[in-house]
């Protein structure tokens, strides 16, 4: 199950980078795409969450773990808000905004590439995870690759370029997803429950705010002029694929491999998505992108291959007072 979750995650993440950049060149704004992502996922996950909480309450009565947000999130409010803020709301807003400033080839290096760095630092702080010398060497290569890509964008900013804004947003998005992955591990949350919870929080927090700001004229929405085919596709892929399928698969991968190894397993994503950007979107591959991609991919592989080849199996996670043991 851990290997299957890794394959599904890598596949969807690769498609996410290419499709999100292509979407930025069409009708919808970043806020529109974030809304459709949340709406598409909510159609599947909110009824699922309500049913899960109701069945759990009927079976356990007063002993049932606490739910929140009117019974649609199976996790307590504090856990739901923490996971939802970083994994459901900030990540989507920052990532989609980044694609409107920087190409997919930059996202290929800076989002999945910097994810192991942020995750390792956060895991060392929150989970007391030890950074071994081989892993530290891999992280140093990742930093060098990120600087090689982002540094050129910063230099171009002196001439009026704004690609650096997208690069910065990609790095911030990666840090938000790393925070979510470490928190999911720390709270020992079930993969399905975590995905339902972050969607419930994003829906409750973002949809009313979006509607209010559009109504007041504070932000611009292109939903009224976008083709229905574009709207439906974004709901299905961004909501159903990137949130429902990928969210469950990624969280399941964290439970099996741990947060740091899980993010390092995504070594295939930078190369595959960069090739997809060149092949499908016609983006150029400058020397600094190629060099940065090689450094990042090598750094991720060093962190994976230089660890113990046969790690001891993890003990089953104990039942958390607010969650259930991993599974579906």
Query: For the residues shown, what is the average pLDDT?
Result: 85
Number of strands: 0
Provide the structure class: mainly alpha
Q: What number of domains?
A: 1
Rounded Rg? 20 Å
* Pattern of helices and strands: HHHHHHHHHHH
Terminal CA distance reads: 10 Å
For the largest beta-sheet, the strand count, sense and barrel status come to: none
Q: Which descriptor suits the 3D outline?
A: globular
What does this structure look like?
There is one protein chain. With 328 residues, this protein is an all-alpha fold. It has one domain (2-305). It contains eleven helices and no strands. Helix 1 (2-24) packs antiparallel against helix 8 (228-257), helix 2 (30-60) crosses helix 8 (228-257) and helix 4 (104-126) packs antiparallel against helix 9 (259-265). The longest helix has 31 residues, at 30-60. The radius of gyration is 20 Å and the shape is globular.
């Amino acid at each position: 199950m851990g290997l299957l979750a890794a394959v599904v995650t890598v596949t969807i993440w690769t498609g996410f980078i290419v499709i999100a950049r292509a979407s930025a060149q069409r009708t919808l704004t970043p806020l529109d795409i974030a809304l459709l992502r949340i709406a598409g996922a909510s159609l599947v996950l909110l009824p699922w969450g309500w049913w899960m909480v109701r069945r759990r309450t009927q079976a356990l009565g007063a002993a049932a773990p606490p739910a929140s947000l009117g019974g649609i999130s199976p996790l307590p409010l504090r856990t739901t808000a923490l996971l939802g803020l970083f994994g459901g709301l900030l990540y989507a807003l920052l990532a989609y905004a980044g694609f409107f400033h920087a190409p997919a080839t930059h996202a290929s290096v800076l989002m999945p590439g910097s994810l192991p760095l942020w995750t390792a630092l956060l895991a060392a702080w929150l989970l007391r995870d030890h950074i071994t010398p081989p892993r530290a060497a891999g992280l140093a290569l990742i930093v060098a690759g990120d600087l090689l890509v982002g540094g050129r964008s910063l230099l171009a900013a002196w001439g009026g370029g704004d690609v650096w804004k997208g690069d910065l947003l990609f790095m911030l998005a990666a840090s938000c997803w790393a925070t979510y992955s470490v928190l999911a591990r720390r709270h020992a949350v079930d993969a399905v429950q975590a995905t339902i919870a972050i969607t419930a929080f994003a829906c409750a927090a973002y949809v009313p705010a979006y509607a209010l700001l559009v109504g007041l004229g504070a932000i611009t929405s292109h939903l009224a002029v976008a083709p229905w085919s574009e709207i439906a596709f974004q709901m299905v892929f961004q909501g159903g694929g990137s949130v429902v399928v990928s969210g469950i698969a990624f969280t399941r991968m964290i439970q099996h491999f741990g947060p740091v190894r899980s993010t390092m397993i995504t070594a295939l994503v930078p190369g595959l998505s960069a090739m997809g950007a060149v092949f499908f979107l016609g983006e150029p591959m400058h020397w600094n992108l190629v060099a940065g991609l090689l450094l990042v991919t090598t750094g991720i592989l060093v962190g994976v291959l230089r660890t113990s080849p046969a790690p001891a199996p993890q003990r089953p996670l104990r039942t958390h007072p607010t969650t259930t043991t991993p599974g579906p």
